[in-house]
Amino acid sequence: MSNHLAIATVTAALGQIAQTAAESAVAGVNLRFGRPTAPAQQGERKLHVYLYQVTPNAALRNGDLPTRDSDGRLTRRPQAALDLHYLLSFYGDDQALEPDRMLGAVARDLHARPVLSAQTIQDTIAGHAELTGSDLAAAIETVKFTPTHLSLDDMSRLWSVLVQIPHALSVPYIGTVVLIDALEGGPLPLPVLRRGEQDRGVDTRIGPFPQLHAYWAGAPASSERKPRLPSYPAGQLGARIVLEGANLGGDTVVVRFVHPRLAAAQEIEIAPNERTPTMLKLTLPDDAPAQDAWAAGIYSVAVTCRRGQTAQSSNTVPLVLSPHLTSVTPNPASPAGGSVTLTITCRPRVLPAQRATLLIADREVPAEPHVNPTDTLSFVIDPAPAMNQELVRVRIDGVDSFPFKYDATTGGFVFDDLQRATIT
């Protein structure tokens, strides 16, 4: 990043490099800046460095954005990123091939040393009083000269604007990138009073970090079966959960479950014999406290692996917890006045804010309101259809209960007769 003298400094430095190279091939070469002009006399040896175009640098033109906050205040110093397009024209005795020799020497040196060094910039500034104050030598981004290609049509257009100037042997170069700072800058930062917690410095966490990829849910009795049965569509209280991922090792490994309707998250520490670097095994609780601590719905699950004093957290994956329907009463039920009220018990308890419906036959029946968490829901079916041993499901916040269960005898899945209803 430099001040407004950067462009002039690059032009002067390019001229110095090109003149030195040209004079190594032909002695007595005069250096001129600006538009090419006709030789003052036949066979005059001279080199013109013509900055004919300046364009924004495509890679860095927006590298300083944003420079202002929402109130329009400057947050960082703006800078312009520019590419400089040059035309080097050579004049001399054509019969002695002087222009060709000069061009060859210049192309040789710019190819060998394309980067504009700080020493060259300082030498250029020392030879040009008008460049005093240029800070291009201290810029982080160095300027590199690269030959570019102009088609015959582009070259014709360029020389057509040079009215009454005969064409001369020329080669185009591009100098990239020049960063020019604005005069105004952002606010000065406040001093640092403390470096991290208890002034211990930056807390640097080096990977690889733990990663969660997928999970398997099923009955505890089926979790070790080979091959493993397909996963439940969701987890349930009392179910076995297998989390699969990478870099899951540590002195302690804790799985954290967060539900949007529960104030407290649930954490389960994984025993050493239940974990590997790629797999964590756990059983969701199904005791009396779990009925209030957990709720059906979608959980955000993450793993925290602690090694010594360093704790690393994994990405978050969704885990669906399904309600478990345990009974339907009365069963069988007899309509009274054409309607039937069925009482469903399920776990975990259903929160008052959760939407609960009963899926029975071809109907979705909403639960009667309740003001406290409950494991008992009432559903009024009006009119009540006649059915015999029809499987029913309860839906909590869009998550359905399973109408099946794992059968240890057959080692597979069977429909659960406790989730059937009969209306006579």
Describe this structure in words.
It is built from five helices and 24 strands. By secondary structure, it is mainly beta. A five-stranded mixed β-sheet has the order 1-2-3-5-4. Strands 8, 9, 12, 13 and 14 form a five-stranded antiparallel β-sheet that branches. Strands 17, 18, 20, 21 and 24 form a five-stranded antiparallel β-sheet that branches. A hairpin with a 2-residue loop joins strand 10 (275-276) and strand 11 (279-283). The longest helix is centred in the N-terminal third of the chain and has 18 residues, at 6-23. The protein is elongated.
Helix content: 10-25%
Q: Distance between termini?
A: 87 Å
Give the integer mean of the pLDDT values: 91
Shape: elongated
Spatial ordering of strands, largest sheet: 1-2-3-5-4
Summary?
This protein has 424 residues and is mostly beta strands. Helices cover 13% and strands 37% of the residues. The protein starts with 5 loop residues before the first helix and ends with a strand.
Helix and strand arrangement:
Blueprint: H1 6-23, E1 30-33, E2 46-56, E3 79-91, H2 98-112, H3 118-126, E4 144-147, H4 152-160, E5 169-181, E6 211-218, E7 240-246, E8 252-258, E9 266-269, E10 275-276, E11 279-283, H5 288-293, E12 297-307, E13 310-313, E14 317-321, E15 324-329, E16 340-350, E17 356-360, E18 363-366, E19 374-381, E20 387-396, E21 399-400, E22 404-407, E23 412-415, E24 420-423
Parallel strand pairs: 1-2
Antiparallel strand pairs: 2-3, 3-5, 4-5, 6-7, 7-11, 8-9, 8-12, 10-11, 12-13, 12-14, 15-16, 16-19, 17-18, 17-20, 20-21, 20-24, 22-23
